[in-house]
């Protein structure tokens, strides 16, 4: 009896479920890691709003994809004089 293929399929399914549940946490961690830089570049209000949008699961991903397709940020950086 071939038990090994069934074990591989079971393990793959369990790992996929675990990774899917971890996706929102990973985005939040990345947003928190970049909050200082965003506030420095965009200002307190825009930087905080940008980080908050990035931390929301799936909303941050859609925002980043739209910005990449558009070629610029929705919340632009402050002008450096």
Question: What does this entry look like structurally?
Answer:
This protein has a domain at 22-69. 77% of the residues lie in helices and 0% in strands. It has 4 helices and no strands. It has helices spanning 4-33, 35-42, 44-55, 59-70. Helix 3 packs across helix 4 (59-70).
Structural class: mainly alpha
What is the CA-atom radius of gyration, in angstroms?
19 Å
Q: Tell me, rounded to a whole number, the average pLDDT.
A: 87
Order of helices and strands: HHHH
- Which percent band covers the strand fraction? under 5%
What sort of overall outline do the alpha carbons produce when their principal axes are compared?
Answer: elongated
Number of strands: 0
Query: Unreliable runs, pLDDT <50, ≥5 residues?
Result: none
- How many separate helices? 4
Main beta sheet, described? Answer: none
Calculate the terminal CA-CA distance, rounded to whole Å.
73 Å
């Amino acid at each position: 009896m071939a038990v090994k293929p069934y074990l591989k399929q079971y393990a793959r399914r369990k790992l996929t479920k675990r990774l899917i549940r971890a996706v929102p946490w990973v985005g939040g961690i990345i947003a928190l890691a970049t909050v200082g830089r965003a506030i420095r570049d965009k200002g307190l209000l825009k930087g905080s709003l940008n980080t908050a949008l990035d931390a929301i699961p799936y909303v941050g991903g859609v925002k980043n994809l739209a910005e990449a397709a558009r070629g610029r940020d929705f919340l632009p950086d402050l002008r450096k004089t």
